[in-house]
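Good morning N.,

You mentioned wanting to compare the apo and holo forms, so I went ahead and generated the holo version with PRP. This is what I fed in:
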Amino acid sequence: MKPVIALTKGRLEKQFLNFFAGLGYDVEALLEKGRKLQIETKEFSFFFAKGVDVTTYVENGIADIGVVGGDILIEHQPDVFNLFPLPFGHCRMALATKIDYQWPEQKKRIASTFTNITKSYFKEKGESVDIIKLEGSVELAPILGLADAIVDIVETGTTLKENGLVIEDEFLSFSARLIANRSSLKIKRDQLVPVIERFKEGARNV
Ligand SMILES: Nc1ncnc2c1ncn2[C@@H]1O[C@H](COP(=O)(O)OP(=O)(O)OP(=O)(O)O)[C@@H](O)[C@H]1O
Ligand SMILES: O=P(O)(O)OC[C@H]1O[C@H](OP(=O)(O)OP(=O)(O)O)[C@H](O)[C@@H]1O
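and this is what came out, ligand included:
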């Protein structure tokens, strides 16, 4: 059976394709995928899913390897081999709030999609906060008064800037990562090792 690769769709997809083409693999079928979620090439079976679902598929052995943001691995702690960083998908995690914001005396309310990362960030600071889980457009929360601040991904800083928010603290940086299913690495070792080595070499040469 061909190696099965789970790819995070959306932002990381195009960057992965550039990287993968640079390794010398044929990417034509991937470029022409349209709305299809599964693509077969001569060498691999690919499928596309949201980042956190990529970890679920890899953890359960449906995919042998996966490409996922480092933020997802830290937030969800899946039981997979976290192999190595890939040279794309760079971003940071930041605490941000409104310009000149007067913090309240009482417990702070922090909005984030990354509730576990937020929890450990404030735990390390010894501060107790209320965390409000949001699924997107997190920058709205301080503007609309739902929260005092946000913990979110920053890449260029444009979203913060255009919404009148500023970084209070930056505390983690990420890139995309290659992950693998623990048993696949043993059972399909002969097939997977050359692929993983090629990825590693490509990541090193950037
Ligand atoms: N500016 C950015 N915003 C969000 N994620 C980024 C950014 N830059 C790089 N990344 C990385 O890309 C990964 C996927 O981001 P993407 O925005 O496509 O996923 P998502 O936020 O789960 O998708 P959606 O917006 O469809 O809910 C993230 O997990 C992160 O590692
Ligand atoms: O620093 P920047 O380059 O502006 O990128 C950061 C923004 O991108 C992400 O949102 P996304 O576009 O994924 O939308 P979402 O809010 O729906 O998650 C992230 O949550 C920030 O809002």
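DSSP finds nine helices and eleven strands in the chain.

Happy to go through it together on a call whenever suits you.

Best,
F.
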